[in-house]
Amino acid sequence: MKLYSTNLQAEEVSFETALIAGLAPDRGLYMPGTLPVFTEEELTSLKDKPYPEIAYQVLRKVLEGEIDEESLKEITYDAYDYEVPLEKVDDITYIMRLDRGPTASFKDFAARMMARLMQYYLKKENRELTILTATSGDTGSAVAHAFYGLDNIRVIVLFPTGEVSDRQRKQMTTLNKNISALSIDGKFDDCQAMVKQAFADGDLKHLNLSSANSINIGRLVPQSIYYFYAYLKLRDYPEELIVSIPSGNFGNMMGCVLAKRMGVPVKRILASVNENDEVPSFLGTGKYAKIVPSKNCLSNAMNVGHPSNLARLIAIYGGEMDEQGRINKMPDMERLRQDIFSISVTDAETRAVMKEFYDEYGIMIEPHGAVGIKGLRDYREKTGDNTPAVTLETAHPAKFPEEVKAVIGVEPQLPESLKRTEAGEEFMDSLSTDYSLFKEYLIRKLE
Ligand SMILES: *Cc1c(COP(=O)(O)O)cnc(C)c1O
């Protein structure tokens, strides 16, 4: 497996190199040049397998020659030791709950696999590194938990002070040990910009920094697996499936694009966004404009005004977008529009869906999942396409207790994993968005 950079100015590298580096030296994002394609027989043979086995079989093909099979199998079964429920709403609609991992969001799927893969390579070479990651809430906690207590890896998480819930913050601040939480007086986009600048800063080279955001290819590949899983549980080859994905930085959606490339019959990918509607606008008009600053919506993990994975999406459809969001070469818009349908959902619509699902079906969903459901509904209304669909619930309702309680009048029950962090002592540092102060902080902390 060779990976290229979306900025096309860097050499192709192995999976291990891309995983450890995070960002390419030309500041582009790594993308697999080729992907294996699963035949009908191969897909069908996985039909009744449990999640970790499907994950192992998919990764074995994708990472062929990059890791020995025995270690991979061990890593996969260790990472995926929790349930992946598919909940039926009606004959053509299912909710896939990706909220049963240790930090109760879908980010656990990627973070747990990436942490274990990194540890595998670092141990082999007796190396150490520091993960620098910006989070709008759930990435930080998933990454912090995934790496917590590992020997060769330190983690620094930047989060926007006012934009994460108390519960999200506690999941990052109560760990300590090799995990540092850094509260930034700004927005998610500021945190992301600071992290990117640190990676590009020659003065910090000796600190061995790496990323764990959705910009790391090690996060993206595991996010293709649950699309295999949903397909295998719900459909028989070659029947098609529609998927609705609540999207912010578009890493989850890119996972689906990869799964489709690998042969999963996904008819259409619905990228459902909140009021940060730069992607639906782009698909509609062919003109891209970031939203600066990003809008604060109820589904706070999706408040992204310029999704970093957009460069990857554009690359895979034959175009080129630089890290500023400038499109140097247009992708094949016709094919892009055929495969991906993007819908913006308002906060009022989000609340209405949460309430309706609870009152009518007795199903509790949180704001991100509600955006996915509403996106699917709008799609069906606009196109009349009633192909069976799965919509993703990307977090547990208990991660957003105030929002859920305010809308449906009921406090969601805390899963066991979250109960433990509630009581813990918090450790964190605070900074402004001034890059020079951040740089000093890193040097002080890591040198
Ligand atoms: C991160 C996150 C999203 C958005 O996922 P992207 O890969 O950034 O598009 C959606 N829902 C929840 C709960 C999240 O934490």
Question: Care to describe what's here?
Answer:
The protein has helices at 15-21, 40-45, 51-62, 69-79, 107-125, 138-147, 166-173, 188-200, 217-220, 225-234, 251-261, 278-285, 310-316, 333-339, 347-361, 367-383, 401-408, 416-422, 435-446, and strands at residues 3-5, 30-32, 86-90, 93-97, 129-134, 153-160, 179-184, 209-211, 241-246, 266-273, 320-321, 327-329, 340-344, 389-393, 429-431. The chain is an alpha/beta fold and 447 residues long. The protein has a domain at 84-104 and 219-408: Rossmann fold. A six-stranded mixed β-sheet has the order 3-4-14-9-10-13. It is globular. The two termini are 34 Å apart. Bound molecules: pyridoxal-5'-phosphate. Residues 105, 107, 137-139, 214, 246-253, 301-302, 368, 394-395 line the site of pyridoxal-5'-phosphate.
Q: What ligand molecules are bound, each kind once?
A: pyridoxal-5'-phosphate
How many angstroms does the end-to-end distance come to? 34 Å
Percent helix range = 40-55%
Q: Classify the secondary structure makeup into a structural class.
A: alpha/beta
Number of distinct helices: 19
Rg from C-alpha positions? 20 Å
Strand arrangement in the largest pleated sheet: 3-4-14-9-10-13
Unreliable stretches (pLDDT < 50, length at least 5) are none
- β-strand amount: 15-25%
* DSSP summary, beta strand count: 15
Characterize the overall form: globular
**Mean pLDDT, as a whole number?**
94
What is the CATH architecture descriptor of the domain at 84-104 and 219-408? 3-Layer(aba) Sandwich
Domain Tryptophan synthase beta chain-like PALP: 93-387
Family: Belongs to the threonine synthase family.
GO molecular function: threonine synthase activity
Pfam family, one: Thr_synth_N
